[in-house]
């Protein structure tokens, strides 16, 4: 099966980035709802331990991290482009900044006392504690640390003012009159903030930014239908991983195909995934692993932001 399957949950900002990219590309997909916190048994059967949201599945190929998902969608459908010709480095660098710095500020805004109260309104105390404990574990062993809410709140106007100035220059999107990966990476942290009822007016003083947000939202999420997570695992088991790889083999560390390796995120959500090295390219790492439920799967990671090392 070569259909696109997105594993996500509604409130995830990075999932909103992926959903909007699917809409931008005009692609059809299957929607698999996953838990917001661990354990995630069906997702783990596919990824081998990678726990961040979202994950894109195409048959027995599993794509982790929206930076790589964006590149896979670009291969799926070239137009409209997420990486515009002549602006590849600028667009990618801006997206990487937004996915880290701007995102951390968006999280800090949500974790102010009033934001936190609104985000968890009506939830049982044990549910809230479970979420907080899960997110604390998410940062264990990684290079990133949560931004203090007070610091994020203090710096937030600076970041919005910069975007407002940029959008007031006359272009509809950040790098011109067409959206690109930089726009989607900037959109999801702002969406995460404004989707919180206590922070809904966070863009009140930024009309150009509000208009840009509306243009981005107009891309929608494409056509999709619900799919059960157990069925997604069965689809992987009934499929064969693709033998097609994008880019020539390239291993700065001198690893070889067939070698046992471990791949983990560097910043947060650093749970390692072990498997057999299938391919290394400039922007992609691919390992094969076997699961008693999902069968033989290939798990794909971006190179930037991830660590690959041999298992001795």
Automatic annotation (TrEMBL):
SUPFAM superfamilies: GST C-terminal domain-like (SSF47616), Thioredoxin-like (SSF52833). Pfam families: GST_C_3, GST_N_3. It comes from the Bacteria. Keywords: Transferase. Signal peptide: none annotated. Residues 2-81 form the GST N-terminal domain. Gene3D superfamilies: 3.40.30.110. This is Glutathione S-transferase.
């Amino acid at each position: 099966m070569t259909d696109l399957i997105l594993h996500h949950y509604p409130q995830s900002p990075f999932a909103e980035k992926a959903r909007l990219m699917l809409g931008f590309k005009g692609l059809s997909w299957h929607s698999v709802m996953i838990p917001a916190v661990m354990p995630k048994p069906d997702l783990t059967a596919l990824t081998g331990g990678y726990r961040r949201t979202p994950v894109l599945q195409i048959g027995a190929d599993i794509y982790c991290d929206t930076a790589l998902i964006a590149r896979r969608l670009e291969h799926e459908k070239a137009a409209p482009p997420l990486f515009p010709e002549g602006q590849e480095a600028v667009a990618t660098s801006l997206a990487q900044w937004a996915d880290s710095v701007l995102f951390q500020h968006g999280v800090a805004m949500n974790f102010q006392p009033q934001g936190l109260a609104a985000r968890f309104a009506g939830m049982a105390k044990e549910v809230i504690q479970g979420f907080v404990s899960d997110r604390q574990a998410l940062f264990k062993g990684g290079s990133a640390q949560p931004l203090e809410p007070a610091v994020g709140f203090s710096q937030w106007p600076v970041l919005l003012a910069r975007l407002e100035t940029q959008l007031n220059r006359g272009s509809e999107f950040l790098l011109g009159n067409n959206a690109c990966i930089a726009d989607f990476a900037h959109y999801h942290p702002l969406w995460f903030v404004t989707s919180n009822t206590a922070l809904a007016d966070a863009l009140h003083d930024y009309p150009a930014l509000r208009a840009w947000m509306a243009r981005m939202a107009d891309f929608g999420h494409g056509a999709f239908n619900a799919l059960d997570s157990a069925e997604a695992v069965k689809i992987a088991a009934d499929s064969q991983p693709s033998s097609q790889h994008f880019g020539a083999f390239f291993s700065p560390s001198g690893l070889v195909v067939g070698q046992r390796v471990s791949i983990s995120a560097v910043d947060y959500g650093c749970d390692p995934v072990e498997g057999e090295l299938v391919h290394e390219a400039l922007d992609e790492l691919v390992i094969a692993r076997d699961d008693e439920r999902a069968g033989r799967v290939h798990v794909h990671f971006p190179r930037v932001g991830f660590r690959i090392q041999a298992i001795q």
